[in-house]
Queue: 3 jobs
Job 1
Amino acid sequence: MKSALKNIVFLLGIAVAPLISGAQNVTFSVNQVKEDLDFLRATLQTHHPNAYLYSSKVAFDAFFDSLYQNIPSGMTELETYRFITPVCSIIKDGHTLIFPSTKGTDDHNQNSRFFPFKIYWDGRRMYLELNYTREIAILDGAEIIEINGKKKKKIMEFILSRMMRDGNNLTY
């Protein structure tokens, strides 16, 4: 995708920021998150038809062990969700999904500001495919270098590590 505007830097006060609302006032202890991780791990190991198809059992166990050892204290539901969802990058099964609670989803749908762009990632560069805002200075096709000080590579790592996928396909 080509653009007349090259190397544009966006500064947005939306989308990447955490939710701030009543449902996010609840925090979970390290032990509560450990219980959830234990439940998730056991459920995947006993009920998933092929949990080790794209990642070995060794990689699977190392991933969960790393999560278990690095649980921050006092996470909100959103923070816990963000902490756990990289499991999708290990399972790599488009039918294995992790969702927040209904209350968390409802709160998000009512109070969050959504990312107002459709982006295109070619593996190295990020482009604005469609601008859903009224800001006409940001043109479709512009290259995104960073958003709110976050480099495009870090943004894509965050997205891709949580994205549902089938195998190593990153285009889902």
Note: Helices lie at 30-47, 57-69, 77-84, 88-91, 102-111, 152-162.
Job 2
Amino acid sequence: AIIGPNGAGKTTLISQISGELRPNAGTIHFAGRDITHLPVHKRSQLGLARSYQITSILEGFSVIENVALAVQAHTCHSFHFWRRACSFQELRQPALEVLERVGLAERANTPAVNLSHGERRQLEIAMVLATRPKLLLLDEPTAGMGAEETDHMIALLKGLKGAYTIVLIEHDMDAVFTLADQVTVLVYGRLIASGTIDEIRHNPEVRQAYLGE
């Protein structure tokens, strides 16, 4: 997990890793490869996938169509332009499998516009998983959620930990302390600490700068 106060540079860091922002200096390496100058889609093909603070889904499409389009984009196959993406079994089946994993299988044919805020977040996670990522970059996945939705999202992410490497930006400290194995703390673009949950809990600089005395 990456934590820090507003303006610390957390989203900027994620945007540089994903390729949406270019660093002023230094290099970015993923799986032993220098990806500093690779565009976003090339990084995605290597296994980098990102979610955003503000949910980004296609409201005019059904839940399964959103995921099927994510599968299609990752396979780089155009299929037939005027047919619905979810009509292709090679897109529909993996989309259904991902929806099952995030708990939205029963909502597959629901228009995305009718989803609750928490379900929209689940759908976005499903779209990320549909790209078969090696690394998930999740930017505040519990933002705007109530207590019950937050608990559901934490349980979902906890179930993904064994299968994916996850970099999590999160302000909900309960989520951070439940999910993270390692925590890095940024303050005004500067890394002030990185370590286990216990090390971060008891770091005096972190307590003063972020967690509060």
Note: The chain has nine helices and eight strands.
Job 3
Amino acid sequence: KEDVGWLARTRRLIHPFSTEKMGPCGYDLSVGTSYYLFSEDDGDRFVPRSLPEVQPDATFSMPPNSCAFIVTEETVNMPLDLAGQLSLRFGLTKKGIMLSPQAPIDPGYSGKIMMMLYNLSDQPRDFHRGDSFVTITFHQLSAATEAYHGGNQSGETVQDFIQSDKPIMSSCLLYTSR
């Protein structure tokens, strides 16, 4: 906890940073403004969505058996001797939300983080801007390594991460609509 706080203050590991979001071994990241959720109204187009920046308590609802891509509010700036790993907040797991398997956050990555969640429940689930939904834990490497230089560097919005013009929908919808 102390190491994460020190890195946040001295190297802007997480921005914006709040001590209230720190746990014993991780930091809770929150729902940002950029997300993607399939809608029948989109037809055969990929239509990214965003919550209004002027409404700090803005919400979107994830229908049952759907998937959504959510971008964090925070930006992470990974030093060359740290890797990060994400896990879903357990309160969401208990509500039927599942985080898709996610690759580690590489040393040298700088940007927001996008992840895909599934609503496996039979109820819609609301996501409020600013609410904690995933926890990032940091893993110290034995030495600094080369920096990440992939296509997701500096990602800020769903469009930065997903280069598509076709919709993405959950296959769960195919089985429940019969």
Note: The first strand starts at residue 14 and ends at 15.
